[in-house]
Design brief:
single chain; 180 residues; alpha+beta; 6-stranded mixed β-sheet; 5 helices; globular; Thioredoxin_domain; Thioredoxin-like_sf; Thioredoxin domain-containing protein
Length: 180
């Protein structure tokens, strides 16, 4: 599923049973309460074909793959991660990685939850071999926390993780940073 986000519109291309004639996709606007609790709400999408046939269905937030986590590459790593004025959690992922896909909804929700306290970015394993080699990323998904341009000692985490465990992991790291 692909998605493009603008200031007021979310366009979604889905792999559904095709409708015979040209169709338009419209999404019901989200209220501010729905935006803040995006992971827990369901949203209704309507598919119209010449106004003759309407298909409506609900989709959960885990199906829509767009939002707060920015994908960066080697060229943006220094400015986004090393020069950041707040902690940055880097998630090394790959498109073919099943555990990465399982962890994504949790990282997306936590990215919105932490807001200005933490930036979460993802780096594609296959597209960024120099970063993979430099940071010795051997398993995916792989999390590393950076603060003040340096890797935080003991911050590496590898493998699939549930949202509560990921939140506990991040909270522990942020607490240790505020004490240090």
């Amino acid at each position: 599923m692909d998605c493009i986000v603008s200031s007021s519109t979310v366009l979604i291309r889905s792999h559904l049973t095709p409708i015979r004639s040209a169709s338009s996709v419209s999404a019901k606007p989200l209220s501010s309460a729905q935006v803040t609790s995006f992971a827990t709400n369901r949203h209704t999408l309507s598919f119209k074909s010449d106004y003759k046939r309407i298909r409506a269905f609900s989709t959960s937030a885990s199906t829509i793959r767009c939002g707060g986590i920015k994908e960066i590459g080697e060229s943006e790593f220094t400015s986004t991660v090393l020069e950041s004025d707040r902690p940055v959690l880097v998630n090394f992922v790959a498109t073919w990685c099943g555990p990465c896909k399982l962890v994504y909804p949790a990282t997306e929700a936590l990215s919105q939850e932490y807001g200005d306290r933490l930036t979460i970015v993802k780096i594609d394993h296959d597209a960024n071999p120099n970063l993979i080699a430099e940071y010795k990323v051997y398993g995916l998904p792989h999390f590393i926390l950076f603060k003040d341009g340096k890797e935080v000692a003991g911050s590496r985490r590898e493998g699939a993780i549930t949202k509560p465990k990921l939140k506990e992991y991040i909270d522990g790291l942020l607490t240790s940073l505020s004490v240090a």
